[in-house]
Specification:
By secondary structure, this protein is of the alpha/beta class. Strands 1, 4, 5, 6, 8, 9, 10, 11 and 12 form a nine-stranded mixed beta sheet that branches. Its EC number is 2.7.7.27. Belongs to the bacterial/plant glucose-1-phosphate adenylyltransferase family.
């Protein structure tokens, strides 16, 4: 395959992002928004990573299937992703579950979320479909996965992570031969199959699939006619192709995008409060594992027009300061001390307050003399004066959502109940 031909594959592809999931393990963070719409990294939403990967890979046709509490997600997509131009053969479709196939039927599974929009996909006539999950944090060049798909002659190519074998029990796991052809697909196995030549590790599915569009549509039509199917890629479509076609694993390390500062391939499912807090706080490290400052692979998002962050007061105990922290635009740190914290847009931290290990979502107000340690504070929360969190585990557990690792999620309704 010539370099010119190879580079053109992404222009013949459509990325289809499955963004309908609730993400119930994030508890109250997803009471008002779908998991892909949850804020991440100071400015972005989780879905921006999959979308930015597609855009940076050269894909110019994108569809996003939404379902659960989709308003904030749809609004974000309209504001931040409205720059695609039809006259340049570009398209960006937001595809809510809208009972298009049947008056009683919402999206029944991940495969059904694609099948119900088959006519829209076919109207663009993409040669390849790149099916993506909208709720993971990673940087990946899908062009390289497309090339492998074409050169290997696969019916489906599946993005896979190499993980320690016994950590793969919560994933769909690929049993591969020496050529990375998938010979079996096991959902959440108690004893995951190892990788040939590296038996201590297993290949876990990332929920990223590449198909030729025509073949995918045939599969989806067959699946829709099967009354026993649960209409899901992981449970129905992929096992069928593994059994009756050619399924090939694509290793994430081969297409992971890394700057000079990123040592290991970075992929995170921020699906629990602990994982979400940790991935955000990791960004405060001097050299974080995920480089958001890499201009060659930008994370696109909706950028509000905001004034710069501001730090005021310089008295003992009342000094506006931030150490090892990320502070977004329109934040005012007024005599407050931050350590290893991440503040989203428009936060107000008032005098004598102290934040350590705090992930603070947009428009939060921190009252005077508050001391907050290892917290996630939801959008728009008003923290009362003198509130102390993170120093008394029993008290924290009674008032807030306290995770296994001692991270406290704070929402406005929890604050209101304090009286």
């Amino acid at each position: 395959m010539s370099e010119k031909t190879a580079r053109s594959l992404s222009r013949d592809a459509m990325a289809y992002v499955l963004a309908g999931g609730r993400g119930s393990r994030l508890k109250e963070l997803t009471d008002r928004r779908a998991k892909p719409a949850v804020y991440f990294g100071g400015k972005a939403r989780i879905i921006d990573f999959a979308l930015s990967n597609a855009l940076n890979s050269g894909i110019r046709r994108i569809g996003v299937a939404t379902q659960y509490k989709a308003h904030s997600l749809i609004r974000h997509l309209q504001l931040g992703w409205n720059f695609f131009r039809p006259e340049r053969n570009e398209s960006f479709d937001i595809l809510p579950a809208s009972q298009r196939v049947s008056e009683t039927q919402w999206y029944e599974g991940t495969a059904d979320a694609v099948y119900q929009n088959a006519d829209i996909i076919e109207s663009y006539a993409p040669e390849y479909m790149v099916i993506l999950a909208g709720d993971h944090i990673y940087k990946m060049d899908y062009e390289l996965m497309l090339r492998q798909h074409v050169t290997s002659g696969a019916d489906v190519t599946i993005g896979c992570l190499e993980v320690p074998r016994m950590e793969a029990t919560g994933f769909g796991v690929m049993h591969v031969d020496a050529t990375d052809r998938i010979i079996d697909f096991v959902e959440k196995p108690a004893d995951p199959p190892g990788i040939p030549g590296n038996e201590d590790h297993a290949l876990a599915s990332m929920g990223i699939y590449v198909f030729h569009t025509k073949f995918l549509m045939e599969l989806l039509r067959r699946d829709a006619a099967d009354p026993e199917s649960s209409r899901d890629f992981g449970k129905d479509i992929i096992p069928y192709v593994v059994k009756s076609g050619k399924a090939v694993a694509h290793r994430f390390a081969q297409s992971c995008v890394r700057s000079d500062f990123e040592r290991e391939p970075y992929w995170r499912d921020v699906g629990t409060i602990d994982a979400y807090w940790q991935a955000n706080i990791d960004l405060t490290d001097i050299v974080p594992e995920l480089d958001l400052y890499d201009k060659s692979w930008p994370i696109w998002t909706y950028s509000e027009i905001t004034p710069p962050a501001k730090f005021v007061h310089d008295d003992e105990g009342r000094r506006g300061s931030a150490i090892s922290s990320l502070v977004s635009g329109d934040c005012i740190i007024s005599g407050s001390a931050l350590y290893k914290s991440l503040l989203f847009t428009g936060v107000r931290a008032n005098s004598y307050s102290r934040l350590e290990g705090a992930v603070v979502l947009p428009k939060v107000q921190i009252g005077r003399h508050a001391r907050l340690t290892n917290v996630v504070i939801d959008h728009g929360v008003v923290i009362p004066e003198g509130l102390i969190v993170g120093e008394d585990p029993e008290m924290d557990a009674k008032r807030f959502r306290r995770s296994e690792n001692g991270i406290c999620l704070i929402t406005q309704s929890m604050i209101d109940k304090l009286g």
